[in-house]
């Protein structure tokens, strides 16, 4: 039995790469899921799975077909880690079946929350939903038994349906789902095997370097805010690492492929760190955990282990309630350069709808504790655009932004002027996605869902990709980011009265921006994505940009101390309707292909009414979008097939 695992790109098929995998500000993330699947395969007595790193090599259709003709496979697994890779999964499945119609095509990853559409509209045979290792081995056992019989007929569906974590279409054309896949215990979890990853590069030795970045040519995290970053003698390479798996939270905008939170065996971590240090010259780690610090005892030991191997590190995903000032001091002492919190919003209304289960003051405490300790905390964790977002909640977030900047005593445009605020994107497997289906913003048919999956292929969480599930008028939606900055600026200058700028910290911010400029591909990207407010740095030439209003406002208006003193009722409407004019120009004159607003719906009837979010009339649980979705679910007459599909799209 021959098996193959393939990584899946997110770029639309046929698109040229915006930049090579070797370029850009951060190293390519080590493919943990792929190596974990192979590790569990070997541990259960099966031969090593072949690996074809389609994502890294980015081959043409002809190159993929040639590879598959030269290497026959009984099973091909597609690792669709993110749900914005639908088009690529459809393309790869088509090529696999063209070469060998008898190959069993298995798709795993977050995309399988849309298994009903994937199975009906692509040539994928089986979806693995949730954690994939145990289900993958179950499939291998089923296929191996089938091959031994010498029977050329189709694999027995009933045998496959005995495996937990499987979705498929049965002989009666019905969707069958056996429930979310089982998770490996922490003692069985493995760190990425770089040796195995190298086998997927088909002899391209240079491509292996893409998993690393030289520190002085990288913008991987915010290491340069820590003076230890520049110390002589440190190993120069930066790479990524996961120190835990899963999350203790269930945010209503976030994909959850499985339940639970797991940590690794520390002896395995030590072996992995030693390998990175000795064989790849790694001295810096970006910790990609969704929920860093949740297991306090474990992460104390992890920090000490990282320090033992002389690693400087930063965490990009932490809950503000998971760390105390004592914890942060311990992490900094053991090499932590920065820690980023998922702030999301400065509005308690929105935090409750997102089901964050903390209060705004918890955010202040965590960020202030970092500042007091001299531990950098990037203020990039804001997100806007969820259902329930309004001008009121935007201003509340803006006020928190201003407070945080004033606490640091760093010019507000230096902190926020070179970044974009994230906008909520309804990803399959989230209550936000199910909310959109209920309101017919996505559609209920397979064809409609496929159209949506195609629309959101290769999109990011930024304004130019926003799809209006909120129901707000577009004149409001397109202005949210700038109104947020305006309110932040007003608050900042109000709180900075009689205070002086912290010049030392300000200089570090300036240095951080200069470090970003060392990577020419990052600057090229910024110039290219000035679409609906994409990263407009002041020194970039935007004079010929058709998005000149967005760029002008960001550079000269929303962070202006003079403008901040003007009455809100004068400034805000001008900003709002200037941006709406720009939106209309983009939509009707330039027909911007990146602009997804054309798929949005302006409809005040779909806006969540305030009384549903009023804390004086509702509990925190009732204000969660998950609860709102569940209540509305009872209003629909759903078939068994509808219920099965909903089990997938609503998440575990």
Structure description:
There is one protein chain. The chain has 652 residues and is of the alpha/beta class. It has a domain of 184 residues: Cobalamin-binding domain (Rossmann fold, 3-Layer(aba) Sandwich), CATH 3.40.50.280. Helix content is 41%, strand content 10%. It is built from 26 helices and 16 strands. A 7-stranded mixed β-sheet has the order 2-1-3-4-5-6-7, with helices on both faces. Strands 8-9-12-13-14 form a 5-stranded mixed β-sheet. Strand 6 and strand 7 form a beta hairpin. About 4% of the residues have low confidence.
Q: Find the CATH topology of the domain at 3-186.
A: Rossmann fold
Please estimate the helix content: 40-55%
**How can the largest sheet be summarized?**
7 strands, mixed
| CATH top level class name of the domain at 3-186 | Alpha Beta
Summed over residues and divided by their number, the pLDDT gives a mean of: 87
Q: What's the gyration radius in Å?
A: 25 Å
- Oligomer kind: single chain
List the strand order in the largest sheet.
Answer: 2-1-3-4-5-6-7
- β-strand percent reads 5-15%
Shape: globular
CATH architecture type of the domain at 3-186: 3-Layer(aba) Sandwich
* Structural classification: alpha/beta
E-strand count: 16
